[in-house]
Amino acid sequence: MKNSPHIVEVTDDNFEHTVIAASHIAPVLVDFWAEWCQPCKQMLPTLLKLVDEFAGDFILAKLNIDEQSNLAAEAGVRSVPTVMVFRKGMVVDQFLGVQPETVIREIIERNRFSEADRLMSQAAEKAALGLWPAATALAHQAAVLEPGNGVLQFEVAGFLVSAGDLDGAETTLAGLPREIRESPEADTLRARIDLSRALIAAPDRSALEETVEQQPLEPLPRYQLAARYLEDGEAESALQQLLAIVQMDRGFREDGARKAMLAVFAQLGPDDPLIARYRTQMLNILH
């Protein structure tokens, strides 16, 4: 196979870097193949031609299912060739079997990053370095470029919450199409905003811990303490406080503690063991 900076071999060891992380910079087409698969070899020249033509607008990631059987099983691959398109960490498109160049080209075209996507990727890089003013400015530029793109605008709103621009996040969220604005994901984002706002006038952590011990039935100090724990990266301690509020006062902040728990789950990621444990406890209380 030709040497190209836009072609990678995928293994268990590099999957997170070459597929998940890379898909935040450009779409990654993961080609599940095998040496014995003649259709795979038949389709390869088309993929290589498109790699050259698009010149970095997508990455071709080759994954041998016999050598990387665990990854193939996790992806649910049952036959080859299978090609999955990863974009911003998620599978957003796929096709099975040999497809003509026109079909593959159309899949690449509809998933390639726009200029606004690239700005958001740059914003994420700045944020990772702690350069939040520059990161926020880039996110606002992305929003201006595609005002009618509700999915992108929602991503911008989430980014602004992380950057601490709560007013900007709320304004962006309010301008989204109704189906996005009223989605469960939007409720989760609003819960993140509310938790962040709870910190603005909150006492410090030790004072809140003392208040909760002295006034265990007051939900506000618990809620503020949960936000402090999240600020310090202590998700389980935050979930314990929020669960206590769900149990004592569902009406607090219009079911705000339950929504905040869902926001914490979203931040933890789907595989975190805390999610199953605390979701079960929450459902037992609710039902």
Structural notes for this entry:
- By secondary structure, this protein is of the alpha/beta class.
- The chain folds into 3 domains: 7-111, Glutaredoxin, CATH 3.40.30; 115-182, Serine Threonine Protein Phosphatase 5, Tetratricopeptide repeat (Alpha Horseshoe), CATH 1.25.40; 205-286, Tetratricopeptide repeat domain (Serine Threonine Protein Phosphatase 5, Tetratricopeptide repeat), CATH 1.25.40.10.
- Helix content is 61%, strand content 10%.
- It contains 15 helices and 5 strands.
- The chain has a 5-stranded mixed sheet, with helices on both faces.
- Strand 4 (82-87) and strand 5 (90-96) form a beta hairpin.
- Helix 10 (184-198) packs across helix 14 (256-268) and helix 14 runs antiparallel to helix 15.
- The chain is elongated.
- The mean pLDDT is 92.
Task: List its salient traits.
elongated, Glutaredoxin, five-stranded mixed sheet, 5 strands, Serine Threonine Protein Phosphatase 5, Tetratricopeptide repeat, 3 domains
Query: How helix-rich are the residues, as a percent range?
Result: 55-70%
CATH class of the largest domain: Alpha Beta
Which runs of at least 5 residues are low in confidence (pLDDT < 50)? none
Radius of gyration: 23 Å
